[in-house]
Specification:
Elements: E1 2-3, E2 6-7, H1 8-24, E3 28-32, H2 38-44, E4 53-58, H3 62-69, H4 73-79, H5 84-96, E5 102-108, E6 123-130, E7 136-141, H6 147-165
Parallel strand pairs: 3-4, 3-5
Antiparallel strand pairs: 1-2, 5-6, 6-7
Helix pairs in contact: 1-6
Protein name: Nicotinamide-nucleotide amidase
Organism: Roseiarcus fermentans
Length: about 170
């Protein structure tokens, strides 16, 4: 069963997250690469989400990461787009470029192409930044489970990071 575009369980989690953020007076931003806006899409699927969702950045290219989020070209050159350093910089950049209180970022290799021995298909890095708190990062290796499955699993992990940030 789905609620709109997403599985019902995802929509229920998103609604609960938005309710908690709303009651706490917190606003959320997303910075998405491999998910292409799916996290923001899930959050905005919920009626009333405009009270919490401040903005979303889809930064698929490295140039977009630099231009919109202030990710350093040196970080990208040294670590690559799919890395802890880039996920951290994306989350922190989304906070700096918005009025949000919490930002979540995602960057990974959804497949089927683009993987390597060092960064295989299914490798995704996440960041979650909250004003006044240390930025949290997480690595997930979902495996070569298919592009759509990697992207949807990434949405679930991003929700978990946002939930933990509250």
């Amino acid at each position: 069963m789905t609620a709109g575009l997403f599985p019902q369980a995802y929509a229920a989690r998103a609604a609960a997250l938005l309710d908690r953020c709303g009651r706490a007076g917190l606003r959320v931003a997303t910075a998405e690469s491999c998910t292409g806006g799916l996290i923001a899409g899930l959050l905005t699927e919920i009626p009333g989400s405009s009270a919490v969702v401040e903005r979303g950045f889809v930064v698929y290219s490295n140039d977009a990461k630099v231009d919109l989020l202030g990710v350093s070209p040196a970080t990208l050159a040294a670590h690559g787009a799919v890395s802890e350093a880039t996920a951290r910089a994306m989350a922190e950049g989304a906070l700096a470029a918005s009025r949000a209180d919490i930002a979540v970022s995602v960057t990974g290799v959804a497949g089927p192409d683009g993987g390597s021995a060092e960064k295989p298909v299914g490798l995704v890095w996440f960041g979650c930044a909250r004003r006044g708190a240390p930025t949290v990062t997480r690595e997930q290796r979902f495996g070569d489970i298919g592009r759509g499955a990697v992207r949807l699993a990434s949405v679930a992990t991003a929700l978990a990071l946002l939930e933990a940030a509250l």
